[in-house]
Design a protein that fits this description.
Elements lengths: L4 E4 L5 H14 L13 H12 L3 E5 L5 E9 L9 E8 L8 H15 L4 E7 L3 H9 L3 E12 L2 E11 L10
Parallel strand pairs: 4-5
Antiparallel strand pairs: 1-2, 2-3, 3-4, 5-7, 6-7
Length: 175
């Protein structure tokens, strides 16, 4: 593979991100969703990312196509969780297995540190061995399993959570 450029994604990448998400919805258990999302959903998605100051990081090929993306958002919407974020990473099917997700995750981890977060967590379908291996290689540890969390493709799905504790923020505060 040639050069991979890590970029900050804005609305101009909306359709490429949507295509990656919709392929995951239709063909995998990476997203516990049934129906592909409409282009109109991306406006709200990007709006929520901007409102929360959450990055959307992309891997761009030399020809400008989006190979994958990663982002994070709130883990839970209560004040004491302010140092915790839940992340996601998706790679376009023709680029999987080429290190794109790792590059995106390394960039996402650095972003989380710069923003002063302390804990990153990812919910991963228990059968998604590639994502589990990636997270373990990056230092994430298994912290929970929710059995039968979802039902898709005619079967119950178990959801595993992997977390990474970051050395930030330097001075956490209550409130």
């Amino acid at each position: 593979m040639k050069t991979v450029k890590i970029v900050s994604c804005d609305e101009r990448y909306a359709l490429a991100i949507l295509a990656i998400l919709n392929e995951a919805i239709v063909t995998s258990t990476a997203l516990y969703d049934y129906v592909p999302r409409q282009p109109s959903a991306m406006e709200a998605w990007f709006g929520n990312k901007k409102k929360g100051n959450y990055p959307v990081i992309g891997a761009e090929a030399e020809d400008g196509s989006l190979m994958g993306f990663a982002s994070y958002g709130p883990f839970r919407n209560f004040p004491a969780y302010k140092y915790s974020i839940e992340h996601s990473v998706y790679v376009e099917k023709s680029f999987r297995g080429k290190g794109i997700a790792k590059k995106l995750m390394l960039e996402l981890i650095e972003s989380a540190k710069k923003q002063g977060y302390h804990m990153m967590i990812g919910g991963i379908d228990s059968t998604n061995e590639a994502s589990i291996r990636l997270h373990q290689a990056l230092g994430f540890t298994h912290c929970a399993k929710i059995r039968h969390a979802g039902f898709k493709f005619g079967r119950w799905l178990d959801l595993d959570f992997y977390q990474l504790l970051l050395p930030t923020p330097e001075h956490p505060v209550d409130g």
